[in-house]
Protein backbone atom coordinates (compact mmCIF):
# COMPACT_ATOMS: atom_id res chain seq x y z
CA UNK A 1 0.00 0.00 0.00
CA UNK A 2 1.08 3.56 -0.76
CA UNK A 3 0.01 6.37 1.53
CA UNK A 4 -0.50 9.98 0.38
CA UNK A 5 -0.77 12.78 2.94
CA UNK A 6 -2.60 15.85 1.64
CA UNK A 7 -1.02 19.01 3.01
CA UNK A 8 -2.95 22.05 1.85
CA UNK A 9 -4.98 24.79 3.45
CA UNK A 10 -4.98 28.55 3.04
CA UNK A 11 -3.90 29.36 6.59
CA UNK A 12 -7.02 31.36 7.51
CA UNK A 13 -8.71 29.30 10.25
CA UNK A 14 -5.90 29.67 12.80
CA UNK A 15 -4.87 33.20 11.90
CA UNK A 16 -2.68 34.99 12.94
CA UNK A 17 -0.33 32.06 13.64
CA UNK A 18 -1.21 30.41 10.34
CA UNK A 19 -0.74 31.97 6.92
CA UNK A 20 -0.35 30.84 3.30
CA UNK A 21 3.04 29.24 3.97
CA UNK A 22 2.45 28.12 7.56
CA UNK A 23 -0.98 26.48 7.63
CA UNK A 24 -2.44 24.96 10.78
CA UNK A 25 -0.61 21.62 10.39
CA UNK A 26 2.76 23.35 10.88
CA UNK A 27 2.05 25.13 14.17
CA UNK A 28 4.18 23.68 16.97
CA UNK A 29 1.55 23.81 19.70
CA UNK A 30 1.19 20.12 20.67
CA UNK A 31 3.28 18.31 23.24
CA UNK A 32 4.70 14.88 22.43
CA UNK A 33 5.43 12.03 24.81
CA UNK A 34 8.86 13.50 25.64
CA UNK A 35 7.40 16.90 26.57
CA UNK A 36 8.70 18.53 23.38
CA UNK A 37 6.55 20.78 21.20
CA UNK A 38 5.60 19.43 17.79
CA UNK A 39 3.26 20.32 14.95
CA UNK A 40 0.33 18.28 13.65
CA UNK A 41 2.33 17.14 10.61
CA UNK A 42 5.24 16.07 12.81
CA UNK A 43 2.84 14.17 15.08
CA UNK A 44 1.22 12.34 12.15
CA UNK A 45 4.61 11.53 10.57
CA UNK A 46 5.77 10.07 13.90
CA UNK A 47 2.63 7.95 14.16
CA UNK A 48 3.04 6.69 10.58
CA UNK A 49 6.62 5.75 11.37
CA UNK A 50 5.41 3.83 14.45
CA UNK A 51 3.26 1.56 12.24
CA UNK A 52 6.11 1.20 9.70
CA UNK A 53 4.39 3.05 6.85
CA UNK A 54 6.77 5.99 6.44
CA UNK A 55 8.79 4.29 3.68
CA UNK A 56 5.60 4.01 1.62
CA UNK A 57 4.29 7.52 2.32
CA UNK A 58 4.31 10.61 0.10
CA UNK A 59 3.33 14.17 1.00
CA UNK A 60 1.30 16.12 -1.58
CA UNK A 61 1.64 19.85 -1.07
CA UNK A 62 1.84 23.20 -2.84
CA UNK A 63 4.98 25.16 -3.64
CA UNK A 64 4.29 27.64 -0.83
CA UNK A 65 4.51 24.88 1.79
CA UNK A 66 7.50 23.01 0.38
CA UNK A 67 10.15 24.61 2.60
CA UNK A 68 7.96 24.15 5.67
CA UNK A 69 7.59 20.42 4.97
CA UNK A 70 11.36 20.03 4.57
CA UNK A 71 11.98 22.10 7.71
CA UNK A 72 9.71 19.92 9.87
CA UNK A 73 10.04 16.45 8.32
CA UNK A 74 13.51 16.67 6.80
CA UNK A 75 14.54 16.47 3.17
CA UNK A 76 14.05 12.69 2.97
CA UNK A 77 10.24 12.95 2.98
CA UNK A 78 9.03 12.17 -0.58
CA UNK A 79 7.13 15.21 -1.89
CA UNK A 80 4.60 15.56 -4.72
CA UNK A 81 4.37 19.27 -5.55
CA UNK A 82 1.16 20.89 -6.77
CA UNK A 83 1.78 23.78 -9.21
CA UNK A 84 -1.10 25.64 -7.51
CA UNK A 85 -3.88 25.01 -5.00
CA UNK A 86 -6.95 23.46 -6.68
CA UNK A 87 -8.86 21.39 -4.04
CA UNK A 88 -8.61 17.69 -3.26
CA UNK A 89 -9.67 16.05 -6.54
CA UNK A 90 -6.91 17.70 -8.62
CA UNK A 91 -4.40 17.07 -5.81
CA UNK A 92 -5.24 13.36 -5.59
CA UNK A 93 -5.32 13.02 -9.38
CA UNK A 94 -1.83 14.54 -9.56
CA UNK A 95 -0.57 12.21 -6.82
CA UNK A 96 -2.01 9.19 -8.64
CA UNK A 97 -0.29 10.10 -11.91
CA UNK A 98 2.98 10.65 -10.03
CA UNK A 99 2.79 7.19 -8.45
CA UNK A 100 1.82 5.64 -11.79
CA UNK A 101 4.14 7.36 -14.26
CA UNK A 102 7.10 8.48 -12.14
CA UNK A 103 7.38 5.93 -9.31
CA UNK A 104 6.05 3.01 -11.36
CA UNK A 105 3.55 1.75 -8.78
CA UNK A 106 1.53 -1.26 -9.93
CA UNK A 107 -2.02 -0.54 -11.06
CA UNK A 108 -3.19 -3.27 -8.68
CA UNK A 109 -1.68 -1.58 -5.62
CA UNK A 110 -3.95 0.13 -3.10
CA UNK A 111 -3.40 3.86 -2.54
CA UNK A 112 -4.73 5.46 0.64
CA UNK A 113 -5.12 9.22 0.92
CA UNK A 114 -5.64 11.10 4.17
CA UNK A 115 -5.25 14.62 5.55
CA UNK A 116 -1.88 15.47 7.03
CA UNK A 117 -3.37 16.80 10.27
CA UNK A 118 -5.84 14.43 12.01
CA UNK A 119 -5.53 14.40 15.80
CA UNK A 120 -5.84 10.69 16.52
CA UNK A 121 -4.51 7.84 18.61
CA UNK A 122 -1.76 5.63 17.19
CA UNK A 123 -4.21 2.82 16.57
CA UNK A 124 -6.02 4.94 13.98
CA UNK A 125 -3.15 4.14 11.63
CA UNK A 126 -3.63 0.43 12.22
CA UNK A 127 -7.14 0.96 10.85
CA UNK A 128 -5.56 2.77 7.88
CA UNK A 129 -3.42 -0.30 7.24
CA UNK A 130 -6.56 -2.50 7.29
CA UNK A 131 -8.05 -0.53 4.38
CA UNK A 132 -5.76 -2.30 1.94
CA UNK A 133 -7.29 -5.71 2.74
CA UNK A 134 -10.81 -4.24 2.87
CA UNK A 135 -10.57 -2.70 -0.61
CA UNK A 136 -9.17 -5.92 -2.09
CA UNK A 137 -11.55 -8.35 -0.34
CA UNK A 138 -14.71 -6.25 -0.86
CA UNK A 139 -14.03 -5.42 -4.50
CA UNK A 140 -15.06 -1.85 -3.71
CA UNK A 141 -14.20 1.15 -5.88
CA UNK A 142 -13.46 3.22 -2.78
CA UNK A 143 -12.81 2.33 0.85
CA UNK A 144 -13.35 4.91 3.61
CA UNK A 145 -12.77 5.21 7.34
CA UNK A 146 -15.74 6.51 9.31
CA UNK A 147 -15.42 7.66 12.91
CA UNK A 148 -18.15 6.61 15.34
CA UNK A 149 -19.65 9.93 16.52
CA UNK A 150 -19.46 10.91 20.18
CA UNK A 151 -22.08 13.67 19.83
CA UNK A 152 -24.44 15.04 17.10
CA UNK A 153 -21.99 17.44 15.48
CA UNK A 154 -23.12 19.88 12.79
CA UNK A 155 -19.47 20.52 11.78
CA UNK A 156 -18.73 17.19 10.07
CA UNK A 157 -20.00 15.29 7.07
CA UNK A 158 -21.66 11.90 7.71
CA UNK A 159 -21.30 8.54 5.97
CA UNK A 160 -24.57 6.62 6.12
CA UNK A 161 -24.11 2.82 5.74
CA UNK A 162 -26.66 0.36 4.43
CA UNK A 163 -28.70 -1.34 7.13
CA UNK A 164 -27.51 -4.88 6.51
CA UNK A 165 -24.02 -5.70 7.75
CA UNK A 166 -21.67 -6.90 5.01
CA UNK A 167 -18.74 -7.80 7.21
CA UNK A 168 -17.37 -7.40 10.71
CA UNK A 169 -14.72 -5.02 9.37
CA UNK A 170 -16.68 -2.86 6.90
CA UNK A 171 -20.15 -1.74 5.76
CA UNK A 172 -21.42 -0.82 2.32
CA UNK A 173 -22.18 2.90 2.02
CA UNK A 174 -25.76 4.01 1.29
CA UNK A 175 -25.22 7.77 0.94
CA UNK A 176 -23.56 10.87 2.39
CA UNK A 177 -24.93 13.85 4.30
CA UNK A 178 -22.88 17.03 4.51
CA UNK A 179 -22.89 18.98 7.80
CA UNK A 180 -26.49 18.44 8.93
CA UNK A 181 -28.32 20.33 11.68
CA UNK A 182 -27.93 18.78 15.14
CA UNK A 183 -31.46 17.29 15.11
CA UNK A 184 -30.75 15.61 11.77
CA UNK A 185 -27.36 14.49 13.06
CA UNK A 186 -29.07 12.68 15.96
CA UNK A 187 -31.26 10.77 13.51
CA UNK A 188 -28.25 9.89 11.39
CA UNK A 189 -26.39 8.54 14.42
CA UNK A 190 -29.39 6.32 15.18
CA UNK A 191 -28.82 4.86 11.70
CA UNK A 192 -25.20 4.09 12.59
CA UNK A 193 -23.93 6.99 10.50
CA UNK A 194 -20.22 7.81 10.88
CA UNK A 195 -18.20 11.01 10.70
CA UNK A 196 -16.35 11.38 7.40
CA UNK A 197 -12.69 11.93 8.32
CA UNK A 198 -11.41 12.38 4.76
CA UNK A 199 -9.61 9.04 4.32
CA UNK A 200 -9.94 7.42 0.87
CA UNK A 201 -8.48 4.13 -0.37
CA UNK A 202 -8.63 2.73 -3.91
CA UNK A 203 -6.72 0.55 -6.31
CA UNK A 204 -4.54 2.74 -8.48
CA UNK A 205 -6.12 1.42 -11.67
CA UNK A 206 -9.56 2.67 -10.54
CA UNK A 207 -8.46 6.28 -10.46
CA UNK A 208 -6.17 6.05 -13.50
CA UNK A 209 -9.05 4.63 -15.57
CA UNK A 210 -11.34 7.36 -14.23
CA UNK A 211 -8.87 10.02 -15.36
CA UNK A 212 -8.74 8.42 -18.81
CA UNK A 213 -12.56 8.54 -19.00
CA UNK A 214 -12.49 12.24 -18.10
CA UNK A 215 -9.81 13.01 -20.68
CA UNK A 216 -7.31 13.97 -18.00
CA UNK A 217 -3.62 13.14 -18.67
CA UNK A 218 -2.24 10.16 -16.75
CA UNK A 219 1.40 11.17 -17.26
CA UNK A 220 2.57 13.34 -14.38
CA UNK A 221 4.59 15.85 -16.45
CA UNK A 222 1.67 16.44 -18.82
CA UNK A 223 -0.84 16.84 -15.99
CA UNK A 224 1.42 19.42 -14.35
CA UNK A 225 1.28 21.44 -17.60
CA UNK A 226 -2.53 21.24 -17.70
CA UNK A 227 -3.08 21.50 -13.95
CA UNK A 228 -4.57 24.99 -14.00
CA UNK A 229 -7.35 23.77 -16.32
CA UNK A 230 -8.61 21.16 -13.84
CA UNK A 231 -11.87 22.01 -12.13
CA UNK A 232 -11.59 23.05 -8.48
CA UNK A 233 -13.67 20.38 -6.75
CA UNK A 234 -13.33 18.01 -3.82
CA UNK A 235 -12.54 14.32 -4.24
CA UNK A 236 -15.74 13.54 -2.30
CA UNK A 237 -17.97 15.29 -4.81
CA UNK A 238 -16.12 14.38 -8.00
CA UNK A 239 -15.30 10.74 -7.24
CA UNK A 240 -16.56 9.20 -3.99
CA UNK A 241 -20.22 10.23 -4.22
CA UNK A 242 -20.38 9.08 -7.87
CA UNK A 243 -18.72 5.69 -7.31
CA UNK A 244 -20.84 2.54 -7.69
CA UNK A 245 -19.43 0.57 -4.78
CA UNK A 246 -18.13 2.33 -1.66
CA UNK A 247 -17.46 0.70 1.69
CA UNK A 248 -16.60 2.18 5.06
CA UNK A 249 -14.55 0.77 7.93
CA UNK A 250 -15.87 2.02 11.31
CA UNK A 251 -13.32 3.42 13.75
CA UNK A 252 -14.38 3.78 17.38
CA UNK A 253 -11.28 5.54 18.75
CA UNK A 254 -10.39 9.16 19.42
CA UNK A 255 -10.44 11.48 16.39
CA UNK A 256 -10.58 15.24 16.25
CA UNK A 257 -10.21 17.98 13.68
CA UNK A 258 -8.04 20.68 15.28
CA UNK A 259 -8.98 23.20 12.60
CA UNK A 260 -10.24 26.07 14.77
CA UNK A 261 -9.00 27.87 17.85
CA UNK A 262 -11.74 26.45 20.07
CA UNK A 263 -10.88 22.84 19.18
CA UNK A 264 -7.11 23.36 19.15
CA UNK A 265 -6.99 24.92 22.61
CA UNK A 266 -8.75 21.85 24.02
CA UNK A 267 -5.63 19.81 23.21
CA UNK A 268 -2.73 22.14 24.03
CA UNK A 269 -0.83 21.38 27.22
CA UNK A 270 -0.78 24.88 28.73
CA UNK A 271 -3.12 27.85 28.94
CA UNK A 272 -0.18 30.18 28.27
CA UNK A 273 2.27 29.67 25.42
CA UNK A 274 4.80 32.44 25.18
CA UNK A 275 5.03 35.64 27.24
CA UNK A 276 1.74 36.18 29.06
CA UNK A 277 -0.37 36.20 32.22
CA UNK A 278 -3.99 35.20 32.90
CA UNK A 279 -5.71 36.24 36.12
CA UNK A 280 -7.38 33.61 38.32
CA UNK A 281 -10.97 34.61 37.47
CA UNK A 282 -10.41 34.18 33.73
CA UNK A 283 -11.51 30.61 33.10
CA UNK A 284 -11.04 28.50 29.97
CA UNK A 285 -8.88 31.23 28.47
CA UNK A 286 -5.73 30.67 26.41
CA UNK A 287 -2.83 32.86 25.29
CA UNK A 288 -0.68 31.78 22.33
CA UNK A 289 1.90 34.53 21.97
CA UNK A 290 4.72 34.54 19.38
CA UNK A 291 5.68 38.16 19.99
CA UNK A 292 8.29 39.47 22.42
CA UNK A 293 5.68 41.75 24.04
CA UNK A 294 3.81 40.47 27.13
CA UNK A 295 0.08 39.73 26.87
CA UNK A 296 -2.14 39.99 29.97
CA UNK A 297 -5.79 38.89 30.28
CA UNK A 298 -7.93 40.11 33.17
CA UNK A 299 -11.53 39.11 33.90
CA UNK A 300 -12.29 37.48 30.53
CA UNK A 301 -13.31 33.83 30.27
CA UNK A 302 -13.74 31.47 27.32
CA UNK A 303 -11.51 33.49 25.02
CA UNK A 304 -8.34 32.93 23.02
CA UNK A 305 -5.66 35.57 22.47
CA UNK A 306 -3.25 34.68 19.65
CA UNK A 307 -0.43 36.93 18.50
CA UNK A 308 2.21 36.65 15.79
CA UNK A 309 4.08 38.98 13.43
CA UNK A 310 1.04 38.62 11.13
CA UNK A 311 -1.42 40.14 13.62
CA UNK A 312 -3.37 39.82 16.87
CA UNK A 313 -6.59 37.88 17.47
CA UNK A 314 -8.87 38.29 20.51
CA UNK A 315 -11.90 36.04 20.16
CA UNK A 316 -14.60 34.29 22.08
CA UNK A 317 -13.78 30.61 21.61
CA UNK A 318 -17.21 29.64 20.33
CA UNK A 319 -17.04 32.43 17.74
CA UNK A 320 -13.39 31.87 16.74
CA UNK A 321 -14.24 29.79 13.59
CA UNK A 322 -15.61 33.01 12.05
CA UNK A 323 -12.05 34.25 11.57
CA UNK A 324 -11.87 32.30 8.29
CA UNK A 325 -14.73 34.35 6.82
CA UNK A 326 -13.37 37.63 8.17
CA UNK A 327 -9.94 36.97 6.64
CA UNK A 328 -11.27 35.55 3.35
CA UNK A 329 -10.51 38.65 1.27
CA UNK A 330 -7.43 39.76 3.20
CA UNK A 331 -4.33 39.18 1.07
CA UNK A 332 -1.10 40.20 2.81
CA UNK A 333 2.38 38.74 2.61
CA UNK A 334 3.29 36.34 5.45
CA UNK A 335 5.30 38.14 8.14
CA UNK A 336 6.82 34.93 9.51
CA UNK A 337 7.92 31.82 7.62
CA UNK A 338 9.86 28.67 8.35
CA UNK A 339 12.21 27.46 5.64
CA UNK A 340 14.36 24.34 5.22
CA UNK A 341 17.35 26.38 6.43
CA UNK A 342 15.68 28.13 9.39
CA UNK A 343 13.18 31.00 9.63
CA UNK A 344 12.64 34.67 8.93
CA UNK A 345 10.46 37.39 10.42
CA UNK A 346 9.50 40.57 8.55
CA UNK A 347 10.29 43.61 10.71
CA UNK A 348 9.30 46.44 8.37
CA UNK A 349 8.17 47.18 4.83
CA UNK A 350 8.29 50.67 3.28
CA UNK A 351 7.62 52.13 -0.16
CA UNK A 352 9.83 55.19 -0.57
CA UNK A 353 8.96 55.97 -4.19
CA UNK A 354 7.49 54.52 -7.36
CA UNK A 355 10.41 52.10 -7.84
CA UNK A 356 12.01 52.13 -4.40
CA UNK A 357 10.90 49.52 -1.87
CA UNK A 358 12.63 48.61 1.40
CA UNK A 359 11.99 45.34 3.27
CA UNK A 360 13.68 44.49 6.58
CA UNK A 361 13.85 40.92 7.89
CA UNK A 362 15.36 39.13 10.85
CA UNK A 363 16.74 35.82 9.57
CA UNK A 364 18.05 32.73 11.35
CA UNK A 365 20.12 30.10 9.52
CA UNK A 366 20.23 26.88 11.55
CA UNK A 367 23.56 25.31 12.51
CA UNK A 368 24.81 23.15 9.63
CA UNK A 369 22.15 24.46 7.23
CA UNK A 370 22.46 26.77 4.26
CA UNK A 371 20.49 28.88 1.83
CA UNK A 372 20.65 28.26 -1.89
CA UNK A 373 23.29 29.89 -4.10
CA UNK A 374 21.18 32.60 -5.68
CA UNK A 375 21.02 36.04 -7.24
CA UNK A 376 18.46 38.83 -7.70
CA UNK A 377 17.89 41.11 -10.69
CA UNK A 378 15.75 43.73 -8.95
CA UNK A 379 17.20 44.21 -5.48
CA UNK A 380 20.36 44.62 -3.44
CA UNK A 381 20.75 43.49 0.18
CA UNK A 382 22.63 44.54 3.30
CA UNK A 383 23.26 41.89 5.97
CA UNK A 384 24.13 42.85 9.55
CA UNK A 385 25.07 39.81 11.62
CA UNK A 386 23.83 39.88 15.21
CA UNK A 387 24.51 36.38 16.62
CA UNK A 388 26.44 33.21 15.82
CA UNK A 389 29.07 32.24 13.27
CA UNK A 390 28.86 31.15 9.67
CA UNK A 391 30.36 31.37 6.23
CA UNK A 392 29.24 33.26 3.16
CA UNK A 393 29.96 32.59 -0.49
CA UNK A 394 29.78 35.84 -2.46
CA UNK A 395 30.57 35.65 -6.18
CA UNK A 396 32.54 32.42 -5.63
CA UNK A 397 34.55 33.87 -2.72
CA UNK A 398 34.29 32.17 0.71
CA UNK A 399 34.00 34.70 3.57
CA UNK A 400 33.76 33.83 7.30
CA UNK A 401 31.09 35.88 9.15
CA UNK A 402 30.23 36.48 12.81
CA UNK A 403 28.20 38.82 15.01
CA UNK A 404 29.06 42.45 14.24
CA UNK A 405 29.97 41.92 10.57
CA UNK A 406 28.16 43.85 7.82
CA UNK A 407 28.05 42.52 4.26
CA UNK A 408 26.79 44.28 1.10
CA UNK A 409 25.14 42.06 -1.55
CA UNK A 410 24.91 44.12 -4.77
CA UNK A 411 22.22 43.42 -7.36
CA UNK A 412 22.93 40.31 -9.49
CA UNK A 413 25.64 39.10 -7.07
CA UNK A 414 25.74 35.35 -6.51
CA UNK A 415 25.52 34.52 -2.80
CA UNK A 416 24.73 31.83 -0.22
CA UNK A 417 25.05 31.62 3.55
CA UNK A 418 25.67 28.69 5.90
CA UNK A 419 25.41 28.56 9.69
CA UNK A 420 28.30 27.02 11.60
CA UNK A 421 26.26 27.75 14.74
CA UNK A 422 22.74 29.17 14.68
CA UNK A 423 23.37 32.36 12.74
CA UNK A 424 21.12 35.43 12.95
CA UNK A 425 21.29 38.60 10.88
CA UNK A 426 19.19 41.57 9.83
CA UNK A 427 18.60 41.74 6.08
CA UNK A 428 17.60 45.02 4.44
CA UNK A 429 16.38 44.57 0.87
CA UNK A 430 16.24 47.62 -1.45
CA UNK A 431 14.90 47.56 -4.97
CA UNK A 432 12.11 48.07 -7.48
CA UNK A 433 10.40 44.73 -6.69
CA UNK A 434 10.87 42.66 -3.53
CA UNK A 435 9.23 39.39 -4.53
CA UNK A 436 10.02 35.66 -4.30
CA UNK A 437 9.99 35.41 -8.11
CA UNK A 438 13.20 37.51 -8.15
CA UNK A 439 15.19 34.66 -6.59
CA UNK A 440 17.27 32.85 -9.22
CA UNK A 441 18.53 29.66 -7.53
CA UNK A 442 21.75 28.22 -8.96
CA UNK A 443 22.71 25.45 -6.48
CA UNK A 444 21.05 24.04 -3.36
CA UNK A 445 23.59 21.93 -1.45
CA UNK A 446 26.66 23.44 0.21
CA UNK A 447 28.86 20.83 -1.47
CA UNK A 448 27.68 21.97 -4.91
CA UNK A 449 28.19 25.61 -3.96
CA UNK A 450 31.76 25.03 -2.76
CA UNK A 451 32.56 22.90 -5.83
CA UNK A 452 31.34 25.68 -8.10
CA UNK A 453 33.34 28.27 -6.15
CA UNK A 454 36.62 26.37 -6.10
Automatic annotation (TrEMBL):
A Pfam family the protein falls into: NTP_transferase
Domain Mannose-6-phosphate isomerase type II C-terminal: 339-442
Family annotation (InterPro entries): Man6P_isomerase-2_C (IPR001538), Mannose-6P_isomerase_type2 (IPR051161), NTP_transferase_dom (IPR005835), Nucleotide-diphossugar_trans (IPR029044), RmlC-like_jellyroll (IPR014710), RmlC_Cupin_sf (IPR011051)
Residue stretches making up the Nucleotidyl transferase domain: 4-267
UniProt-listed GO biological process terms: GDP-mannose biosynthetic process; polysaccharide metabolic process
Listed SUPFAM superfamilies: Nucleotide-diphospho-sugar transferases, RmlC-like cupins
Alphabetized CDD domains for the sequence: cupin_PMI_typeII_C
GO molecular function, a single term: mannose-1-phosphate guanylyltransferase (GTP) activity
Domain of life: Bacteria
Listed PANTHER family: MANNOSE-1-PHOSPHATE GUANYLYLTRANSFERASE
Name of this protein: Sugar phosphate nucleotidyltransferase
Gene source species: Paenibacillus roseopurpureus
Lineage: Bacteria, Bacillati, Bacillota, Bacilli, Bacillales
Amino acid sequence: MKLVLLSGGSGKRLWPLSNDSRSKQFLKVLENEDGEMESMVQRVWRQIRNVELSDSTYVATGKAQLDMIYSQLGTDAPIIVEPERRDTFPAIALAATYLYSIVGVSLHEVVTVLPVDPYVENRFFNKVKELEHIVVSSGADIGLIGVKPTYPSAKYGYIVPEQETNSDSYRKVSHFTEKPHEDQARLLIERDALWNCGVFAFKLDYLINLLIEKGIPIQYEELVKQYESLVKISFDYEVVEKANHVVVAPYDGYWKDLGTWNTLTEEVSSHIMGNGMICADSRNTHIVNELDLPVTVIGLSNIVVATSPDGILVADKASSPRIKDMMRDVDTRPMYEERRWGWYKVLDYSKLGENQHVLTKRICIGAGKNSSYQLHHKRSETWTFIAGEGELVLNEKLIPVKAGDVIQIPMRSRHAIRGITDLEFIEVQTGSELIEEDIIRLYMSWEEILAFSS
